[in-house]
Design goal:
Radius of gyration: 23 Å
Strand order of the largest sheet: 1-2-3
Strand content: 15-25%
Distance between the termini: 55 Å
Number of strands: 3
Structural class: alpha+beta
Helix content: 25-40%
């Protein structure tokens, strides 16, 4: 994993992104200590298990397609607060 000082990473951000895509994770350091890692979107999705869109996730819900689904609203009064 290549390491970049924060100032250099900011100045050469496009190079950091290209390296993350081609060579893997890129370490960002401040005062010699690792503070962040830049990874490609492909690697992030693979590691996070984010393989489906929000629409696909919602369509897999057991409630998907139910037309008679109703949500009851609580009819209680608002609470009083002293300012």
């Amino acid at each position: 994993m290549q390491s970049w000082q924060l100032q250099t990473a900011k100045a050469r951000f496009s190079d950091v992104l290209k390296s993350a895509k081609q060579d893997g994770p890129q370490d960002i350091t401040v005062h010699g200590k690792s503070v962040a890692v830049v990874v490609s979107r492909e690697l992030f999705d693979r590691l996070s298990g984010n393989s489906q869109s929000l629409v696909e996730f919602m369509q897999r819900s057991p409630l998907y397609g139910l037309d008679d689904l109703t949500f009851e609203r609580v009819q209680s009064l608002t609470r009083e607060i002293n300012l």
